[in-house]
Structure formats: structure tokens, C-alpha cells
Amino acid sequence: MSERSAASLSAPNDLRAFWMPFTANRQFKKAPRMLVAAEGMHYTTSDGRRILDGTAGLWCCNAGHCRPAITKAIQDQAAELDYAPAFQMGHPKAFELANRLVDIAPEGMEHAFFCNSGSEAVETALKIAIAYQRAIGQGSRTRLIGRERGYHGVNFGGISVGGIVNNRKVFGTLLTGVDHMPHTHLPGKNAFSVGQPEHGAEIADELERIVTLHDASTIAAVIVEPVAGSTGVLIPPKGYLKRLREICSKHGILLIFDEVITGFGRTGAAFAAEKYGVVPDMITCAKGITNGVIPMGAVLTTAAIHDAFMTGPENLIELFHGYTYSGTPIAAAAGIATLDTYREEGLFERAADLAPYWAEALHSLRDCPHVIDIRNEGLIGAVELEPIPGQPTARAFQAFLDAYEKGIMIRTTGDIIAMSPPLIIGKGQIDELVGTLRDVLTGLK
Prior knowledge:
Layout: H1 3-7, H2 25-30, E1 35-39, E2 42-45, E3 50-53, H3 56-59, H4 68-80, H5 92-104, E4 109-115, H6 118-135, E5 143-147, H7 156-161, H8 165-168, E6 178-181, H9 187-190, H10 206-214, E7 219-224, H11 240-251, E8 254-258, H12 272-276, E9 282-285, E10 297-302, H13 303-309, H14 329-344, H15 347-363, E11 371-377, E12 380-385, H16 394-406, E13 408-409, E14 411-413, E15 416-419, H17 427-443
Parallel strand pairs: 3-13, 5-6, 5-7, 7-8, 8-9
Antiparallel strand pairs: 1-2, 2-3, 4-10, 9-10, 11-12, 12-15, 14-15
Helix pairs in contact: 4-14, 5-14, 6-13, 15-17, 16-17
């Protein structure tokens, strides 16, 4: 769609039926913000304005919008093979994509299990972890350990191991046998850190306390985001993830990295596991796997985990788990074209090269009103604002609205502004994004 034809579209005349996710529905429907087209680094609104995308859609459009090679791959695949079942049948592109993922994953990741989203990838990894422990004769290991302020999607397993209160509090008792490590946010010691904070590696030792409380023989897995994204961009302290790896290995506990946000170049490497030099037992991924164009997720596992299930008669199903849309042809084609785009344009390397410029630009906002912390890693950034007394989230939400009116898209969680632009962003666009945000912050009350 051309920008001219997109601009001619108006908002729908009836907004009642759609119950929008993670949205202030009543506020939105009084003053809708409608996106009708996108290209490269920009969205086009229903009133014809261009909006600079500072969030890669929803942390997912890492190669920018409406990339021709990805679009063509989807069109061609839909015309050739629209759907094929993944149960007891296969199609070539699912196997090709699995091989391509393993090729760019950290050494030791040798298998991929496909699903449809990050939430489903987390559910899959948690189920595999418990089933694996049983498969190796450790059936008492059923407990799962997450982290305060962690986000692992919105299914029951994900919100159980997750640690964001509003995602949990109205949905009952959730899964039993779940515990949580403390988060790593230490503003008193680490405020305005550039990259990884210096303080906080010792927080990983809280896992030892949890192991002592429950006994290692009851714990199947620990799941953490290498960089906690949706809670407001919490960067792991130096040495923290390596210490978690050591403790998990010591006690026979699987370590799962939720890389739904950090995967596919966001930190300047294919996966944050590579960036931080820590290899988990499983990696969950989604979003950037198809550039956000078609729903898809995956769990990457070691050979040890996969092979533990490959026992018994060969005609029997080894893992009773999967989805109607696991590795569908169109999603697999989009994934392959997306990986091609990342490689051909060197986008992971580009993110690493731009990271210092991004950090400097972001931290230039330190003197803006109400700013109490700034955090960054790769092409991820957060600006934390002092809340309005008695009105939590109000200041950041106003910044979000003002930013949209001034032509940039940001995300907010609580009183934290989060940004994660497509990896195709240029230095001039970084200046535009941060400069406009400065204007927004300066105007806040």
C-alpha cells in the first residue's frame, strides 16, 4: 500500500467488538491511534502522519517493516503450500529453518521445537524441562523457579514463573510448586549505568537459598530473561548470568533463557547467550524469528535434552506436545527469509556497531526533568521517570501519548519508557528519536 492510499483510510466507525490486549480500551476508543501502513523505519497513521518506530513494533520487527524479500517469501509459499500438518508429517522448510536456527545459536543448541509465540515457547520449555527430568529418572524434579519482575508471556505457566504483579494477581493460584528469585534492579548502586551494571552478581546466590529451602531434588528448571525487557529493561549485572549457570549445573537444574526479546540481534549478537558467554540448556525465542510478520516461536535445546526422549519403540510418540501451527509452511518461509535478511545486511553486526552511539544518545537525556535512571544494552534502552505522587504510570503514559503526537513510537511499562528500534536504524534516526523524546520529557509535568 502506498503512503497516499494509506493516508486516505479513516479509522473504523465501530470500535466496540475488539477487546484489545494490554490496552486501556476506554481511553483508546475515545481517541484511537490507528496505524494503516508501514515501510522501513516508519509507520503511517490513518491521518497520514509518519511515525518513527522506536520499538520495532513490539520488540519484533528487527529488520524494519515490509521488507520485500520476506513479503515475497510469504506470497510464494502461500501459493505453493499453504498448510501442512506437523503431526506425523513434515514439509521441507520447517527442517531447513530448524537447521538455520541451530547454525546461529550458541554452540550446544542442536534442536528446535516450533510453536506460535513467545508465550507458547515458554510453556513448551517448561513442559520439556519437567518431562526431561522424569525421562532421566529424576521424576521428583517438578518445581520451577522464575524471577521477580520477570516476563514470560501470558499463559498459565508463563505467568506462574513470571514476576509482574498485574499479570498474575487476578488469575487465581496459578501453577503450584513455583518459587522466585529476586530481581536484579539496584537503582541505589547502578543508576545510569552504561551497559552492564557493576553491582549485583551476588544476587544470583539467592538461588542457593531457594535450593536449600526446597532441595535440589525437587527443582526441574530455572527460567530468566538475560535482559528483562517488558518489566522496563533490567540489564544483568556483570557476572550474574555466569553465576546462575554455575549454580544450576552444580545442582542438576536446567537453565532456560527466555530470549523472545533478546534473540536475533537485539543485543548485538544472534542471542544474548552469545553476548554474555553463557550457554543455557534451552532458549525460547519468537518475535524476531519472522521479523514479527507471521506468528512463530521456537525452543532451542541441547542434544542431551532431545536425546533423553528418543528411547523406547521407534513407532511411539516421544513427546506428547505440539500445536496445530507448529512450524507451518508460511511461517517457516518467513523465518528463512528473515534470517537471510539479517545475514545479507549484517544486521546483528550493525546493532553491535551502533550500540555505543545509541548508548551515548540515550544517556544524553540524563538532565531531562523527572529522569531518575537510564539503562541500555545493544539497541535496547530505558528511561525511568519519577512517578507522580499517587498517580503511578500516569507520567510515562502521558509521555507515550505526547511522543505519538510528535511522530515517534515508544513503549511504557509503569513509569519506564522502553525503546528497541529496528536494527536498520541510522545515526540520524537515533538523533531524531532521542531528540524528540527530549522534547517530550521537557514538556512533562
